[in-house]
């Protein structure tokens, strides 16, 4: 397999989106993450099974598909979902309701939340594939080949406790409908690889006898290890999302975040250097990374998503977290090293799209006096607003607000590393 589509999508479905979706839908973060882990392989499998479907290929190749990435939470609100709902009908037909019910039961969330997340995951998947196709000049035939390469791995990507049968998809994608767990034959034991997920929990995938092995050598000799590597990478990535906060990095979709509130007296940690890529801004290369703040903002603007937004109400739910902007401990005027580059990138984006307007937001965790937290977060947001104004784009910055811990989701009893997701600086488009 030349490319695992999950690698294209995981930047869109990182911890920040999970946190925002949980708050938006009124569900626990663990429930949202669990639902996404079940929906993602089902959607990929559905697309793979429809790799020659004209409606699917048209939707992915349409330039507007990339604009979906700029408003994923809008999909969770069931706004502007005509493209997504049409795709779901093409992929799952009358089985959409059964899939929604099964995921709701599995993740412990409501059916409405499950349906909203199905829209969100489908949008993230189609948008990510569409962007990859555009960046790599893939035509519909190329997209079809890319989707076809994903066939056959659905059941191995489903998390523990789920199978095609339990999702009410039956034999829809072909192959065995049960999870491939701990399968061996007494006569000829097969090699197995254990994929560990959390403490004292593992899932064992084993090679099966293949009827086509007669005659010397099977593709499974090289294909199975590759599939196992993909599965291992996926589940390790899910575990590492939380662990990476100890180095001030939240995976892909979010940020190198603020490590302090007014009341925090711990020492700051040194951000880990991330190797950035070139993000194209109308022919100018910005240093960022795929799926990061700059990449998503530019994709949204180029898709005319901002131009077509009716008013501020349509934009206010989608925030773009800074990946590298970090203030010094307790300060609202001094940035940590390596923070300036992303402010320069935001400035470049605003200059490249002079009609676009934004608002800045600052956030803290729940620790400390709330009045002081609100004050600190607002001062930090105003610092960024004032800096942008000094560079000539003040008319494009409509506001700077501090929310303190209003949107924080992690309890004060949690560790400093766990609370890090609540401490951040963000920007959103406004009208």
Could you characterize the architecture of this molecule?
This protein has helices at 5-9, 15-25, 29-49, 54-61, 72-76, 82-92, 96-107, 111-135, 140-148, 154-157, 220-243, 293-302, 305-308, 340-352, 370-393, 416-419; strands at 192-196, 202-206, 277-281, 284-288, 320-321, 357-363, 397-402, 424-430. The chain is α+β, with helices and mostly antiparallel strands. It folds into two domains: 5-174, no CATH class; 252-430, 60s Ribosomal Protein L30, Chain: A (2-Layer Sandwich). Strands 5-8-6-7 form a four-stranded mixed β-sheet. A two-stranded antiparallel sheet has the order 1-2. Helix 15 links the parallel strand 6 (357-363) and strand 7. Helix 3 packs antiparallel against helix 7, helix 3 (29-49) crosses helix 8 and helix 14 packs across helix 15 (370-393). The two termini are 44 Å apart. Mean pLDDT is 74; it is low at 174-218 and 242-273.
Number of domains: 2
CATH superfamily of the largest domain: OmpA-like domain
Q: What strand line-up does the widest sheet have? A: 5-8-6-7
Number of helices: 16
CATH topology of the largest domain: 60s Ribosomal Protein L30, Chain: A
Largest sheet: 4 strands, mixed
Q: Which assembly state applies to the chains in this document?
A: single chain
Give the uncertain stretches in residue-range form: 174-218, 242-273
Judging by the overall fold, what is the CATH architecture of the largest domain?
Answer: 2-Layer Sandwich
Strand content: 5-15%
Q: What Rg is obtained from the alpha carbons, in whole angstroms?
A: 22 Å
> Which class of secondary structure composition applies to the elements?
alpha+beta
Helix content: 40-55%
Distance between the termini: 44 Å
What's the average pLDDT?
A: 74
Looking at the structure, what is the overall shape?
globular
Highest-level CATH class of the largest domain:
Alpha Beta
Helix and strand pattern: HHHHHHHHHHEEHEEHHEHEHEHE
β-strand number: 8
């Amino acid at each position: 397999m030349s490319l695992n589509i999950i690698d294209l999508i995981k930047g869109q479905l990182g911890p920040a989106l999970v946190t925002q979706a949980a708050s938006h839908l009124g569900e626990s973060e663990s429930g949202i993450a669990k639902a996404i882990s079940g929906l993602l392989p089902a959607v990929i499998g559905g697309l793979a099974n429809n790799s020659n479907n004209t409606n699917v290929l048209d939707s992915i190749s349409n330039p507007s598909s990339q604009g979906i990435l700029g408003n994923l939470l809008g999909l969770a609100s069931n706004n502007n979902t005509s493209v997504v709902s049409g795709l779901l009908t093409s992929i799952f037909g009358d089985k959409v309701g059964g899939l929604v019910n099964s995921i709701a039961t599995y993740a412990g969330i409501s059916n409405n939340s499950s349906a909203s997340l199905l829209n969100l995951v489908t949008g993230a998947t189609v948008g990510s594939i569409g962007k990859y196709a555009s960046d790599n000049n893939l035509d519909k035939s190329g997209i079809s080949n890319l989707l076809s390469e994903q066939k056959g791995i659905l059941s191995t990507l489903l998390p523990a406790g789920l199978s095609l049968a339990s999702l009410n998809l039956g034999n829809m994608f072909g192959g065995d409908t049960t999870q491939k767990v701990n399968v061996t034959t007494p006569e000829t034991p097969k090699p197995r690889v254990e994929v560990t997920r959390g403490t004292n929990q593992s899932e064992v995938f084993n090679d099966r006898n293949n009827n086509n092995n007669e005659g010397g050598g099977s593709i499974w000799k090289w294909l199975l290890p590759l599939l196992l590597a993909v599965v291992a990478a996926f589940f390790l990535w899910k575990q590492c999302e939380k662990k990476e906060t100890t180095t001030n990095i939240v995976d892909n979709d979010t940020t190198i975040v603020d490590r302090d509130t007014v009341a925090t007296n711990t020492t700051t940690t040194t951000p880990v250097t991330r190797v950035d890529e070139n993000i194209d801004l109308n022919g100018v290369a910005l240093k960022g990374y795929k799926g990061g703040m700059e990449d998503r903002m530019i994709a949204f603007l180029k898709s005319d998503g901002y131009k077509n937004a009716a008013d501020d109400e349509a934009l206010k739910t989608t925030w773009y977290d800074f990946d590298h902007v970090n203030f010094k401990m307790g300060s609202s005027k001094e940035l940590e090293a390596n923070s300036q580059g992303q402010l320069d990138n935001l400035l470049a984006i605003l200059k490249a799209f002079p009609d676009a307007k934004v608002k800045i937001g600052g956030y803290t965790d729940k620790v400390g006096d709330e009045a002081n937290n609100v004050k600190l977060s607002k001062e930090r947001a105003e610092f960024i607003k004032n800096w942008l104004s000094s560079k000539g784009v003040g008319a494009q910055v409509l506001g700077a607000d501090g929310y303190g811990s209003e949107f924080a989701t992690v309890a004060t009893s949690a560790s400093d590393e766990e609370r890090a997701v609540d401490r951040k600086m963000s920007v959103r488009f406004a009208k």
